[in-house]
Amino acid sequence: MTAVPPEVLWAQRSNAKVDSKNIIFLKVRLVDPTDLKIDLKATSLDITAKSDGQDYSLHIDFYAEINEEESHYHVAGSHIAFVLRKKEKKSEYWPRLTKEKAKYHYIRTDFEKWVDEDEQESKPEAGNFDPSTMDLASLAKQYGGKGDPSKGSTGPSEYGDLSELAHSAAAKKE
């Protein structure tokens, strides 16, 4: 059986001053892989595996070098997630994941993780989200709510007087 490449999703961050912000996010989609072999080097990634009776093989020559000691991966049930640290600190993004300029049908942008190059400093990371800092009352007002729900009803319902409906439903049960 001929090996096929798995789907690869990727996104990146770049920063000329902070090492931890010079990373490549890579997600290789393989469901419950068996016979998994991963060879991560400074200039390339090789993966072979079997999944659902299909042989998979992936070889990527990176656009630039990564720091393999500070890069890591995690095998999950549906994919292998990589966080690859770029070796060189630059504020510019890599123009592509691969060394070659060719387009590969199995390599796609991970839009869940992608941040535009000019917006990366202003957009907070999803992992830094703190729900305790949200003002829920003003959010409710912004979206048509009446404010603090613990204060009870603040006016008539948009559906009319629902108490009559509740009493008529209770009367039908008797």
TrEMBL record:
One of its GO terms (biological process) is protein folding. GO terms for cellular component: cytosol; nucleus. Gene3D superfamilies: 2.60.40.790. SUPFAM superfamilies: HSP20-like chaperones. It comes from the Eukaryota. Residues 3-98 form the CS domain. It holds the Pfam family CS. One of its GO terms (molecular function) is protein-folding chaperone binding. Residues 115-174 are annotated as: Disordered. Belongs to the p23/wos2 family. This is CS domain-containing protein. It comes from Dekkera bruxellensis.
